[in-house]
Amino acid sequence: MSSTYTRHLPLSIGGELAVQSDPGPHPWNVHRVCVAGYRASFAVSICEGDSVDTDKERARAHARIASEVGAVAAAHTANAAAGLYAGRCALQSSVADEGLSLSPEVTGIVTCLITAVVTDWTVDLCWMGERVQAFALTGDLTLHTLIHPRPQQRAWPLHAIRPVRRQQVWREPPGGDHRDERVLNIRRLLLCSDSLTIPLGTADLTRLLRRYNSAATACAQLIDAATQRGALDNLTVAVIDLPTLDTSDTAQALAHRQRPVPTPPGERAPLERHASPLLRAA
């Protein structure tokens, strides 16, 4: 983005979200961040735009398209992968409409895209590119890296489709006999670009995220710290503070989810499934 952008809002599921984007001293790629909510879920999408002809206005438009479409689609489906693919499809259409000399499958005009969906029980992450990361601060003040940095890979041609990856975690145990891969007692979630993680590192991120302050204050402190450490590129941060469920609330919610649904006479019992609003990608 060309100027500082901030947004702070309460969440329908409890807690609060704050996003802040700053161009930094020497902005290179254009960033765009978008937030969308629908019923019991909300989504955040961060996009790092690029352009085949160094046109920053074109890059800004592409980043806006990818982030806005991705966030809205993810929030309405409670599915981060659906949001990311919707954003890519919108980019393909915009490239075709502009008559650029690129194949219809090319979405390399967006360097990185991350979409996160948070519901009462789950955190769903989907991303492409290597310059975005996500961290979770749990109830015991332990920092977990949800998106692990990878070395730069140039196996694909310039401006070709980047690989898509996904990570899903349960904020609370789903109950019953379900065995999900990962359960984290997430209380604070951080989404950011590598312009934040490179100058700060995990130790400084942990120290700043552990402070008992608002999400908006955490965003500002992270960007200030990265700037003081010599960050050069755009700085984009989203901090999500999630509500803490007490023991009685958790027990009641789990009991409701484990309650069997009666099957009408003459019909087959449906396959067992999670009662979470999360829709898993096929």
Report the sheet-strand fraction.
25-35%
- Major sheet: order of its strands? 1-2-11-10-7-8
Count of alpha/pi helices? 5
Low-pLDDT sequence parts: 253-262, 268-282
Multimeric status of the protein: single chain
- Tell me the Rg in angstroms: 20 Å
Main sheet?
6 strands, antiparallel
- The beta-strand count equals 11
pLDDT averaged residue by residue: 76
Helix content: 25-40%
Quick structural overview:
By secondary structure, the protein is an alpha+beta fold. It is built from five helices and eleven strands. Helices cover 29% and strands 28% of the residues.
Written account of the structure:
It is a single chain. The chain is an alpha+beta fold and 282 residues long. The chain is built from five helices and eleven strands, in the order ββββααββββββααβα. It has helices at residues 56-77, 80-98, 194-209, 215-228, 247-258, and strands spanning 5-10, 16-22, 30-38, 41-49, 110-118, 122-128, 132-138, 143-145, 164-170, 186-193, 235-241. β5 (110-118) and β6 form a beta hairpin. The longest helix has 22 residues, at 56-77.
For this entry, give a set of tags.
282 residues, alpha+beta, 6-stranded antiparallel β-sheet, 5-stranded antiparallel β-sheet, 11 strands, 28% strand
